[in-house]
């Protein structure tokens, strides 16, 4: 949330640098001269303004993207724990279309397939998790060993 606020501030200040330099100069005078250097504003105003606008847009975009993906991931987990495996699977694929290397969602998809009894697909996604995120090795190996022991291995 704070990133959105900072992003908006960057955009407003950037627009001031580009369109209202005289207003920015007056603001500078009222906030004491050591915060902004008028010479730099006049010489590099448009460059600084564009930088601030782009920084603001990027920070807002990143925050919105994170919020949307967190919401989808949460809903996917909620469906998994409610045993709505088909819906959880669809949500996982929706997230993976945007972020193909999201190891958390790949892991969840492996769990969904495992819980639904689709062990071959589960094995595939667990191996994808290992190729992306070594920190999940212990959990993945636990699931792979359960597949091997309970269901005859389903060797690739």
From the spread of the alpha carbons, the general shape counts as: elongated
Weakly predicted, low-confidence segments:
none
Q: Helix proportion of residues, in percent?
A: over 70%
Largest sheet: none
According to DSSP, the number of beta strands is 0
Report on this model:
This protein is mostly helical. It folds into 2 domains: 82 residues, no CATH class; 73 residues, Tetratricopeptide repeat domain (Serine Threonine Protein Phosphatase 5, Tetratricopeptide repeat). 81% of the residues lie in helices and 0% in strands. It contains 7 helices and no strands. α3 packs antiparallel against α4 and α3 runs parallel beside α5. The protein is elongated. It starts with a helix and ends in a 6-residue tail after the last helix. The model has no long low-confidence stretch (mean pLDDT 84).
Keywords:
single chain; 156 residues; mainly alpha; Serine Threonine Protein Phosphatase 5, Tetratricopeptide repeat; 2 domains; 7 helices; 81% helix; 0% strand
Question: What's the short version?
Answer:
This protein has 156 residues and is mostly helical. The protein folds into two domains: 1-82, no CATH class; 84-156, Serine Threonine Protein Phosphatase 5, Tetratricopeptide repeat. The protein has helices spanning 2-19, 21-30, 38-81, 85-98, 103-115, 119-132, 137-150.
